[in-house]
Amino acid sequence: MRRSSSRTSRAFTLIEVTAVITIMAILAIGVSVFLRLPLQAYQDAQRRASMSDAADTAFTMLKRDLQRALPNSVRVRSVGAAYYLEFLQVRTGGRYRADEPNPRAPAGGNTCPDADGDTFANENVLQFGIADTCLATLGAVQGLTSIIPNRDFLVVYNLGLGFPAADAYASAAGSNRSLITAVAAGAAGENVIAFQGHAFTLESPARRFHVISGPVTYACDPVAGVVRRYAAYAIAAAQPAPPAGAFSLLTDGIDACSITYDQNPANQRTGVVSVWLRFADPAGGAAVSLFQQVQVSNEP
Fold first, then answer.
1. pLDDT tens profile 145-154
2. pLDDT per position as a tens digit, 90-108
3. Which pLDDT value is given to residue 1?
4. Which residue in 284, 290, 291 sits closest to 44, CA to CA?
5. Domain limits of the chain?
6. Of residues 251 and 48, which shows the higher confidence score?
7. For residue 65, which of 254, 273, 253, 206 has the smallest C-alpha distance?
8. Which long-range contacts (CB under 8 A, 24 or more apart) does 287-291 make?
9. Are strands 208-221 and 288-297 parallel, antiparallel or unpaired?
């Protein structure tokens, strides 16, 4: 009788399993060595991009604000490692009437005092050297309804620090600014702006005026590691550092910075604000330095 052959089943031995695990571990280590540097480079690039985006947001806001800065109002102060950039922000502006109306209007219709006592209204002429309380504009003021009476200021011919009666930062009596009390549409497409009694001293050669909403400060503090924007605080002759107003956080992660303001010696009607920020890498990698320059118009 023929005996049938039996099939024997064979399993993996412990030695074989151990060998497979060892080989897979070696392969995993090899793959991780090749992937570690590319992954690290990717993470570094992501962190640098994130820091650059944060700085770009701050630079964009600064550039937009500086484009609306009152001419000759930019000033910079440093306290320790911190820098403070301040300027007066323009809400709108226009040109004022500088000649008496023709024909003259009877004094009974005055909205301002009869400055020269000739019984005719001078409400559409901005007076200089004597206290005046209103002016009429040449043409409509763009954004007239955006002016906030009893908060915004009228400024005429701002020349800045060192010019008596032509510095909007100076105390109210010795400055070229006056608090606006009312605005209204006038005749023939012109507007009327009323303000607290003030004797403006210097006329603008172009008959221009500005309406400012108040001061703004950009502060870079590497000790706190932040860049902040301050607003809604009072105008002061001495630059505050920091101001007492409310602030918003623009970016953090700063470990060094500098802000400078330079006027062109060949043309005092232009200036350049330069801002340098250095971001510390939280992962201990290389720091990221960013630099921005903004040209400022000083045409009063």
1. 999 999 999 9
2. 999 999 987 665 555 554 4
3. 47
4. 284
5. 48-87+218-297, 88-213
6. 251
7. 273
8. 287/255, 288/48, 288/51, 288/52, 288/55, 290/52, 290/55, 290/59
9. unpaired
